[in-house]
Here is the input.
Amino acid sequence: MSEAVLETRGLSRSFTQGGETIDVLRGVNLSVGPGEIVALLGPSGSGKSTLLQAVGLLEGGFDGSIRIAGEEAAQLDAPGRTVVRRDRLGFVYQFHHLLPDFNAIENVVLPQLIHGATQDVAEARATTLLTALGLGHRLTHRPSQLSGGEQQRVAVARALANRPALVLADEPTGNLDESTADRVLGEFLRLVREEGSAALIATHNERLAARMDRVVRLHEGVIEAA
Here is the structure.
């Protein structure tokens, strides 16, 4: 059996607020296999975003183990976390967070240049991804000239640009109407599968979660079913 792309053991996170300790994550054990697309399902406040922040190495303060592509990452220093995020992870959020002064292709080229790709290689890769997402005719449009669904497609292409082992998505269609959300998610899932990446996708939508390979339910910081 291939080694898990993501594995957490005993992952916990607590905050102190008004003198009271709040346990947001309570010993989360989770595994995502190579090429597997897992829905992280739970209501608002269940800890989904905190879990994604943890496995995305976006902040510290967590207890437990986080292994990404076989590497223990929980205790890495800031430069080490940056390297893992750059080399192993891709991110898609509810809001696209595109750079407003850059057009679609430039938004997808930039992370590749940071990763060390040449301009020609990065542009070719960006064009391939955006065309696969139906945006071949919108490459030179800035985010303000794109619809919400188009903006999110660019964000998907950006997340996959560096061929990550794992894509993390936090309510990636939550800011779209139902019809657009269905189309964007379908294209997202198709492209992730074609690229061979694994994905952990947080959502509160049962219908969207059912389209993924497996559903993991998070309730009050605890995995209820996997």
